[in-house]
Each structure stands twice: as structure tokens, then as C-alpha cells.
Specification:
- By secondary structure, the chain is α+β, with helices and mostly antiparallel strands.
- It has two domains: 1-34; 40-285, Bira Bifunctional Protein, Domain 2 (BirA Bifunctional Protein, domain 2), CATH 3.30.930.
- Strand 6 (189-196), helix 6 and strand 7 (223-226) form a beta-alpha-beta unit.
- The protein is built from eight helices and ten strands.
- The longest helix is centred in the middle third of the chain and has 22 residues, at 165-186.
Length: 286
Amino acid sequence: MSLPKSDLNTLLLEAYKLQAEKLTPTGLLKAYQTNRFAVPSEVDPIAYHQMEANLLKIAEKMGISGILLSPSAPFGSCSVFGCVDQNNVISAARGTETLSDPTNMLAVIISDGLKNGVIEKTQTVHYCTTARVVRAQALPGGKGCFSHFGIFCMVSSGKDGGSYSCEKELLVKQLSYYKRLFSEKYGVKLSLVLGKRSGYTDSDGFFERIAELVRSELPEVPLSFDFAHEDNNYYKGINFKLCMEKENEIIEVADGGFVDWIDKMTGNRKARCLISGLGIDRMLLF
């Protein structure tokens, strides 16, 4: 479709208005009964919000700045980076989409700060947020799979200083957060899977240095490796997954890695960005 954005927006708004005018109260109830995006969560709301507060308080104590995001994001916030299909996001009118990944928005906010001078190009920043997100992809079914769920996420950014010093600094900060959260706050047994990804010229050397760093930062955490998904273009260099053991069940609760989003938005090839996210609902339901 080649309509100008303003004309497309006007067309969509008129189409939605005509659809809404045909709705009836009984029809609305039927729509709710068949819409998986609108049903409430099974999670206890008090426990959920208490965990949100705990996650953010720990981050604040560690110098990770909390941000309260809008439930809407600019249209294409995920798909523009080429790794997410727009059909897996709930698109909306007025140039927006329903928030589906808070890490993208934190990266946008950091990029905006770098472009307008609020954040110095040499400054290292660590942002975090909690958000309830909606995703449209088909669900595999089973325990812990929902169309909407809560996420705590962090996005760290800095400038390349050579010898992977920036990447190491960002990773140490985020791993230190998870170490403090799980060992001190919840006292659960952790394991970590470190995946090798493409995106660095010396991919072997980078991976070896990061693996060494992980061992030194989390010596008590069992570490295994994933070399089967190097061609996965979402993360650059590495991808880490944190799992917890509960009642002899291994549950993946957090995922992260380096991305090139801030580089692409600002045009600064020395910009480094590390993202990670933790599933709040999974923590509460398992």
C-alpha cells in the first residue's frame, strides 16, 4: 500500500469507526469470549505488583534507572530491525502498535537521548522497566504460555573502548543484577546457557572472552554452551539464558544478549547495547 501515512491513518480510523458503530453490547461480550488477547491473567495481581516493585527497587539500588513506559509504541518498533514479523505484533492506528517488547522502547529512548545530547556519547547508561506486553504469534500451548504477560527488562548502552571493554562492563552490570536477585532475594538454584551468535569479526575470540567473564562473575552457577544457533541474527556475538531449578524442574526465566539497535538508530558504529528480559508471570506461576 503506497498511501501517505496521514491518508492511511484517516482511512484506518474511518474503518474502525464504522466497525465500532455495528457493535452491540451482546456482540461485545461474544467478542471478549473468543479473543485471547483480552482475557485476564491467572497471576495474582498483588503478588505480581509486589514483584514488579521488588525488581525495580533492586535495580534502583544498583544504579539502574527505572522508566515507566507507555502501553503503546511507534509502529514498527520491533520489525524495523529485521528480526520480528510485524504480524506477531498488534498493529494499531495513529502510527502506533501495542507494546510487545519493552527492550526496543528503552533502546529508542536511549538513542533519542544520544541524538539530542541528553546522554553523552561516551556515557554508559543502564535503564530498566516492567511492562505488561501483548504478542500476536501463535502459542504452543501448555503451562506458562499466554498472549499477554509481564516482563522486567534492562537495556545497557556505552561506547566501544577496545578489547571488548564496553561489552564486558555492560554484561557485568546485568549479570550482577540477576545474581543479586536470584541468590540474595529468592535463593533459587541457577544455571546459565551461553549461546554463540554471529555479528563480531572475531566471533571465536569474543565468545571465549565473554565465557571467561561469565565464569568469573558467576563461579557457582553451572555454565553450558549453545553452538547450534550461530546464524540467529537477533543477537550479536552472544546470547545468554538464565534458568532456575524448582522442584526438580528447569525453568527458563531470563534471556539476553548484545544487539545493534542503537548503532542503527544513531548511525554510531561504536555504540554498544546489551538487552535482557525476565518473565514475571513465569516467576510467579512456577
